[in-house]
Design a protein that fits this description.
Structural class: alpha/beta
Distance between the termini: 45 Å
CATH topology of one domain: Rossmann fold
Pfam family, one: Abhydrolase_6
Strand content: 5-15%
Protein name: AB hydrolase-1 domain-containing protein
CATH architecture of one domain: 3-Layer(aba) Sandwich
Helix content: 25-40%
Number of strands: 8
InterPro entries: AB_hydrolase_1 (IPR000073), AB_hydrolase_fold (IPR029058)
Strand order of the largest sheet: 1-2-4-3-5-6-7-8
Radius of gyration: 20 Å
Organism: Gossypium tomentosum
Length: 376
């Protein structure tokens, strides 16, 4: 954990909340219902509430009256979305702007393409910029499926093949960062560069031992169903709690170090997806089944297969994923450029001017290399 975090948290809890692709199971029976404190965001209950917020809960008005960051162009908010692509019979939302070398932006857990509001217009001045909503999030379909980390990899890989159709750079924040990494490994012939902004994912535990035991009749047919019922009830209660405006505002302001960007635009882009009748069920599946059996999906297992240049654009004040993780990635994968920013978990939206400059500087070298390879 970064030294910027002042809260003492046990390693097991820290692993669960920092990594949306954690191998640990979300156990409602162990949720801490103590009074709120400055460390509330760094416990199980805080994570559940953050997840609910991210999945798009109605919390505030939709006036969108907030002013954009001074001197930075902002993507217009469209309640009906921008463009849609059909993938495996599912409706997928994406934004596309600009011309030139293509870049694909992938949002974090529960966010959407609109989270790149200050990056798309700036990057589109020199590049063709795509921002895609992952299945189950944003304006994409809230499919009732068994979610697995690889479902989004397949979605991004097919998007590159069917929509982009050119050598591409992937850029991802948080869960979108891990998705970008596995997609880059899955389609190395098309992905020529990868940028991770406070990426999710964890390094494998080489000391961990996997033990499998056969379920007894009592475990399989009595205890397990009862546990699932209890989980659903508790998550429904948490979902209801998270709808309270004061709770939501507190959660959002803990996500951002610079809270000035927690505005109507951001809230509305999170709020609207909750209108989908399947949003609650998607949230339940993401918070339970998605977190099971993910031990094979580790950062080192994919970084060892990565072949393109890597940019780490890291918010050093992130209370979830500190700079130590970025340093470890760079140590593991030497073909890495590390840029540290004074921001939290979402540097692209907190300090868009700095994030955009770092991306443009790095992209210029990647685009030149890709162009030279095409002309050879």
């Amino acid at each position: 954990m970064s030294s910027s975090s002042s809260c003492g948290v046990s390693p097991s809890v820290r692993t669960e909340i920092l990594n949306p692709i954690s191998s640990r199971f979300f156990a409602p029976s162990r949720i801490n219902f103590q009074p709120r404190s400055k460390c509330e965001m760094i416990n199980r209950r805080g994570f559940a509430l953050k997840g609910i917020v991210a999945c798009g809960v109605s919390v505030m008005g939709s006036s969108l009256t907030s002013e954009p960051v001074q001197g930075v162009e902002r993507l217009p908010f469209k309640p009906d979305g921008y463009n849609f692509w059909t993938w495996r019979g599912r409706k997928i939302h994406y934004v596309v702007q600009g011309e030139g070398f293509p870049i694909v932006l992938i949002h974090g857990f529960g966010a959407s393409a609109f989270h790149w509001r200050y990056n798309i217009p700036e990057l589109a001045k020199n590049y063709k910029v795509y921002a895609i909503d992952l299945l189950g999030f944003g304006w994409s379909e809230k499919a009732i499926i068994e979610y697995d980390a690889m479902i989004w990899r397949d979605q991004v890989v097919d998007f590159l093949k069917e929509v982009v159709k050119e050598p591409t750079v992937l850029v991802g924040n948080s869960l979108g960062g891990f998705t970008a990494l596995v997609a880059a490994v899955g389609l190395p012939e098309q992905v020529v560069g990868l940028a991770l902004l406070n990426s999710a994912g964890q390094f494998g535990d080489t000391k961990a031992k996997t033990t499998e035991s056969e379920e007894t009749f009592l475990q399989k047919f009595v205890l397990k169903p009862l546990k699932e019922v209890f989980q659903r009830v508790v998550l429904q209660v948490l979902f209801w709690q998270a709808k309270q405006p004061t709770r939501i505002e507190s959660v959002l302001k803990n996500v951002y170090i610079n809270t000035s960007n927690v505005d109507d635009y951001l809230v509305e882009s999170i709020k609207m997806p909750a209108d989908d009748p399947n949003a609650g069920e998607v949230y339940y599946r993401l918070m339970t089944r998605f977190m099971l059996n993910q031990t094979e999906y580790t950062l080192d297992s994919f970084l060892s297969k990565l072949t393109c240049p890597l940019l780490l654009l890291w918010g050093d004040l992130d209370p979830w994923v500190g700079p130590a993780k970025a340093n470890r990635i760079k140590e593991f994968y030497p073909n890495t450029t590390l840029v540290n920013l004074k921001a939290g978990h979402c540097p692209h939206d907190e300090v868009p001017e700095l994030a955009n400059k770092a991306l443009v500087d790095w992209l210029s070298t990647i685009a030149k290399k890709a162009s030279s390879l095409q002309t050879v």
